[in-house]
């Protein structure tokens, strides 16, 4: 067999493999959207879930997911920012930082169920938070921190050293250089990473089953005081998220229309994550153009 | 005079700012390290309690196949044999990786070497989106598509290792593909130019030059995919059938380490043997995750040495 022929055959095989991959990917997305979207309507998004009868919605689950996402980001962003700045600006190349980088890698590759169980042990049992939004948000922080940190570090490191030298030569302190020059320049990258992390948090379920709990007590959306029991902002109430809800109705629940609920909820999840992805792309490009004056 | 002296000896505003910033950053990184240490310590101490407090022999835990942590066998030993879960976990992981690797590397070669800009521009976002799809959605699709499909072809319940493998295959495919693309892209352009200038065909260039240069990266991609498959809980739990039996074939219900953990940890009482035994399963997961990390580092180091020469 000569080289030309094997080139043709190999190319053909690769095309075949890619064709199968594309078919799988497209049919996957198509299946979720085709089956789910017709059932997503205003009633589904705004009514309470039903345990024993058909026709329930996902109002509370949807809100819980968003609320948990916001809380988790509020907790994890400052820590990740500090850690990212340390790794990119202060960390020298020695064994201590080697250990630090390795531990962050270990944390990022831990199975989410292990993180969830650790959250259950530490937050729910030892710290006595019970199944609560707070415990869930902190568990999501554990899960999110390494990724966000690495993303921030990468964005900061990609800022050219010229900028740091310029800051120093103007007589700025190192900290001022970082916060006023380096950070704004790295912002588009950081923001893109933040949005992508949000997508992951939004769909995470394994870390939440034993931290935020699997029940969604009905809450009062008119009560804005977070310290009262029935308020929707109360961080100490158990909260089932959308992803946990899909798992729950498929495994343990007796709801008669489980498949309708899960396909519609899956579609909602996918659409939200699609919006996050496209938003990250769009915002990253736009901010980059604005800040670097590149057309 | 004294005034000037104190002013000169006092640290400047810039120094104090620097100090302030450093304290913040060092405490943030300290917090993360503390967290990692806590996770390792808590899981290890809980997981080892089965062996230290409850007197289960470590070897029996790894090699016996009866999982009834509440009962004792005829010799009075607790029946904590995790072998079925370990075997199932490894089989779904390895089968899914074996199945996904050719497709993923094929797709990655297509995107970096063959496709024109349009094709790559179309595939890239789709694959990125699929990496981000929540695992419960994969589980739900497995439950509503793959399980009935397997049931229709092979009979039985449809739950089992085969269904788990197929779900994981679809899950790790985008992960391995996108990491492989990164690794193929990092092969310097002049390798390709040199090979083509020697008169090699495209396939010869890919096969003899690019794939060889990118081999450590590709291997890392596969291992990351395996780590993801091994640690995946809910998607697998939904399609594997959750029966703690030694898997006899690919279509009988089985149970992985992660699926056992998710279903049982809420039903046991803290501090008892059935609960501790579950933490031992979590410890096995943790250990495997560390091992995957170690392999990736090892490959990275080998790859570096090779490239430097």
UniProtKB/TrEMBL annotation, chain A:
Residues 62-280 form the ABC transmembrane type-1 domain. InterPro entries: MetI-like (IPR000515), MetI-like_sf (IPR035906), Phosphate_PstA (IPR005672). It is found in: Cell membrane. It comes from the Bacteria. Keywords: Cell membrane, Membrane, Transmembrane, Transmembrane helix, Transport. It is a multi-pass membrane protein. Belongs to the binding-protein-dependent transport system permease family. CysTW subfamily. This is Phosphate transport system permease protein PstA.
From TrEMBL, chain B:
It holds the Pfam family BPD_transp_1. It is found in: Cell membrane. The lineage of its organism: Bacteria, Bacillati, Bacillota, Bacilli, Lactobacillales. The chain crosses the membrane at residues 20-44, 82-110, 122-147, 153-176, 209-230, 277-299. Part of the binding-protein-dependent transport system for phosphate; probably responsible for the translocation of the substrate across the membrane. Its main location: membrane. InterPro entries: MetI-like, MetI-like_sf, Phosphate_PstC, Phosphate_Transport_Permease. The keyword Thylakoid does not apply. PROSITE patterns: ABC_TM1. It comes from Companilactobacillus baiquanensis. Residues 86-296 form the ABC transmembrane type-1 domain. It comes from the Bacteria. It is a multi-pass membrane protein. Belongs to the binding-protein-dependent transport system permease family. CysTW subfamily. CDD domains: TM_PBP2 (cd06261). SUPFAM superfamilies: MetI-like. This is Phosphate transport system permease protein. Keywords: Cell membrane, Membrane, Phosphate transport, Transmembrane, Transmembrane helix, Transport.
């Amino acid at each position: 067999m000569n080289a030309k022929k094997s080139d043709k055959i190999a190319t053909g095989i690769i095309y075949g493999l890619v064709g199968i991959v594309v078919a799988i990917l497209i049919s996957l997305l198509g299946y979720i959207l085709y089956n789910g979207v017709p059932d997503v309507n205003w009633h589904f998004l705004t009514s309470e879930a039903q345990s024993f009868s058909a026709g329930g919605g996902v109002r509370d689950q949807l809100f819980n997911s968003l609320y948990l996402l916001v809380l988790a980001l509020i907790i994890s962003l400052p820590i990740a920012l500090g850690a990212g700045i340390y790794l990119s600006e202060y960390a020298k190349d020695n064994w201590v930082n080697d250990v630090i980088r390795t531990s962050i890698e270990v944390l990022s590759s831990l199975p989410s169920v292990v993180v969830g169980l650790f959250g259950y042990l530490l937050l729910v049992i030892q710290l006595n938070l019970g199944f609560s939004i707070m415990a869930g948000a902190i568990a999501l922080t554990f899960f999110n921190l390494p990724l966000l940190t690495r993303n921030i570090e990468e964005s900061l490191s990609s800022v050219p050293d010229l900028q740091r030298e310029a800051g120093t030569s103007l007589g700025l302190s190192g900290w001022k250089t970082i916060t006023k020059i380096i950070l704004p320049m790295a912002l588009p990258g950081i923001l893109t990473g933040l949005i992508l992390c949000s997508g992951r948090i939004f769909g995470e379920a394994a870390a939440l089953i034993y931290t935020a709990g699997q029940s969604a007590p009905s809450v009062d959306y008119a009560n804005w005081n977070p310290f009262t029991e029935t308020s929707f902002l109360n961080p100490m109430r158990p909260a089932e998220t959308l992803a946990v809800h899909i798992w729950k109705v498929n495994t343990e629940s007796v709801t008669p229309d489980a498949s309708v609920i899960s396909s519609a909820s899956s579609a909602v999840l996918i659409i939200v994550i699609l919006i996050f992805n496209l938003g990250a792309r769009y915002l990253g490009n736009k901010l980059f153009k604005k800040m670097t004056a590149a057309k | 005079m004294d005034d000037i002296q104190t002013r000169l000896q006092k640290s400047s505003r810039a120094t104090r700012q620097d100090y302030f910033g450093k304290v913040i950053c060092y405490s943030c990184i300290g917090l993360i390290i503390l967290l990692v240490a806590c996770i390792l310590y808590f899981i290890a101490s809980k997981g080892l309690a089965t062996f230290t407090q409850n007197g289960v022999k470590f070897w029996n835990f790894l090699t016996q196949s009866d999982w009834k942590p509440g009962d004792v066998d005829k010799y009075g030993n607790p029946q904590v044999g995790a072998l079925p879960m370990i075997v199932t976990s490894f089989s779904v992981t390895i089968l899914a990786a074996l199945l996904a690797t050719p497709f993923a590397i094929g797709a990655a070669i297509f995107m970096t070497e063959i496709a024109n800009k349009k094709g790559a521009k179309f595939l890239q976002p789709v694959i990125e989106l699929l990496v981000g799809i929540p695992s419960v959605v994969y589980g739900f699709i497995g439950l509503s598509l793959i399980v009935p499909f397997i049931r229709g072809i092979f009979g039985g319940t449809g739950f089992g290792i085969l269904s788990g493998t197929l779900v994981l295959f679809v899950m790790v495919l985008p992960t391995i593909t996108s990491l492989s693309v990164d690794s193929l892209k990092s092969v310097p352009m002049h390798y390709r130019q040199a090979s083509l200038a020697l008169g090699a065909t495209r396939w010869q260039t890919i096969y003899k030059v690019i794939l060889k240069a990118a081999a450590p990266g590709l291997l890392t991609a596969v291992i990351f995919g395996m780590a993801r498959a091994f640690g995946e809980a809910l998607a697998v739990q939904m399609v594997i059938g959750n029966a703690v039996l030694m898997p006899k074939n690919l279509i009988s219900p089985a149970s992985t380490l992660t699926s056992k953990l998710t279903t049982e940890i809420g039903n046991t009482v803290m501090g008892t043997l059935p609960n501790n035994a579950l933490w031992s399963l979590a410890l096995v997961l943790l250990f495997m995750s560390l091992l995957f990390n170690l392999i990736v580092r090892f490959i990275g180091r080998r790859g570096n040495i090779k490239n430097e020469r």
